[in-house]
Structures are given as C-alpha cells and as structure tokens.
Amino acid sequence: CPAGSFTMGSPKDEPDRSRNEVPHQVTLRAFWAAETEVTQAQWSAVMAVNPSRFPGADRPVERVARADAQEFLNRLAALEPGFQPRLPTEAEWEYACRAGSQTPFANGRPLPTLGWFERNSGGQSHAVKGFQPNAWGLFDCHGNVSEWTADALHDYPDNAVENPRPVTEGNPAIRGGSFADDAEDCRSARRDSARKPSERIGFRFVVDTLPPAWR
Questions:
Q1: What is the Cα–Cα distance from 150 to 90, expressed in whole angstroms?
Q2: What span, in angstroms and rounded, lies between the C-alpha atoms of 160 and 183?
Q3: pTM value?
Q4: Which range (18-22, 172-176, 189-193, 208-212) has the least confidence?
Q5: 140 partner at 20 to 30 Å CA-CA among 23, 128, 179, 188?
Q6: What is the CA radius of gyration of the chain?
Q7: Residues 6+ apart with CB under 8 A from 1
Q8: What integer best gives the mean pLDDT of the chain?
Q9: How would you classify the pairing of strands 206-207 and 32-33?
Q10: What's the CA gap between 72 and 8, in Å, rounded?
Q11: Starting at the edge strand that comes first in sequence, how are the strands of the sheet with 146-152 ordered?
Q12: For 140-172, what is each residue's pLDDT tens digit?
C-alpha cells in the first residue's frame, strides 16, 4: 500500500452512512498488508488449535479475540527474523480496502460481485479469494468475516491527520462486515465494534517493512 493521502469516512450523500463516518483527510506512510484474512491453515500452523465455527483450511479463522490475534502475530514474528506483523489501524485498514477508490465499495460495483454477505453466503464464511481483489491485490475486504483493528471505536477528528496512532480507550473497532451482514454494513467506510470473539470476526495483518530475504 503506497504512501499517500485519502479521504477517510463517507460523504453525506452516501446511502446508509452512519454519523461516525465523518470525512477527513488522512496521510499515511507506505506499508504492506496481507492479501487475505488469516486463514485457518495459517492459524493452526502457528497456534495448533483451531477455534473456528466453520472449519476449512482456506476459510478465515474466526472466534478469536483481539488478544488472541495479537498472540498469533507475536508468535509469527518469533518465527521470522525481521518480520513484525501487527493489526492495522482503522485508517490503514480503510486506506488498504479503498485502494484509491472513493465509492462505497472498492471496485465501484455492487457488493454481490465483491464479497460474501447475508444474501449470498448461506449464513457461513467461505474460502478466501472467492471474488476478485481490489486494485492493490487485497481480497475479502468486503464481507466474509469482519476484521479486528488496532483501534478502539472513537470519534473521528474533523481536521487532517498524518499517520494516526491507535486509540486504545473503548471497545475494539472492527471493519469490513461479514457473511451475516447487510451490504451497507460491508462498505469501505462502515465502522463497528465488538467486545468478544464471534464467528463473524477474524483479522488480517500489516507490516511496515518486509524482511531483507523477502525483498
């Protein structure tokens, strides 16, 4: 995800927007994002036990608390020198999801062409990469499972910000919507929070730099 600026939040005329999607300018440094949510195969390789309700090696892991996700990332970092994965901030998540777009959904098309939600999912998660990626090569940003972020749900500023630090006070923010949500809940700007694990919630990670051997 290249360094750049974008308008975070949604315009006042976006259908089904919420009041907490106040549009504001955000500038971010470059970072790398995992192309999919962490899968059950990836989780099991590191953590041994799979907590997911809907089993499948290529399905996203779910029913993990945000603290569990952080423990996975800590263990993953210990396996590869120079690799420091972390949860994205809300700003990083939305920037990566949008991939340069300002439409409600990243590819500018209706949600059924982009991801799993309540009308096409059959009430369960599905294997990652079931739909086309966004312009930056990221899959499943809309639907399938919602994703933990490093932030707590908070009020947006009304001024421009640069590389915002995570807000820690409050319930953890989740983004992206899930297989059980309506289309409007899977928009790029949509915000929600959660207190405990759910079959609707997984995560993906970001890194600031790649290990030298990966470049």
A1: 7
A2: 29
A3: 0.97
A4: 208-212
A5: 23
A6: 16
A7: 28, 30, 31, 32, 33, 92, 95, 96, 99, 136, 206
A8: 95
A9: antiparallel
A10: 29
A11: 191-193, 172-175, 146-152, 201-202
A12: 999 999 999 999 999 999 899 999 999 999 999
The per-residue pLDDT for range 8-67, each reduced to its tens digit, is: 999 999 999 999 999 999 999 999 999 999 999 999 999 999 999 999 999 999 999 999
Residue 67 sits at φ, ψ, to 5 deg, of -65, -35
Report the candidate in 107, 104, 206, 106 with the shortest Cα–Cα distance to residue 151. Answer: 206
Fill in the amino acid letter for 163.
N
- 127 φ/ψ angles, rounded to the nearest 5 degrees: -55, 145
Q: Assign residue 177 a region: left if phi > 0, alpha if psi is -120 to 50, beta otherwise?
A: left
For helices 66-79 and 40-47, the axis angle rounded to 10 degrees is 70
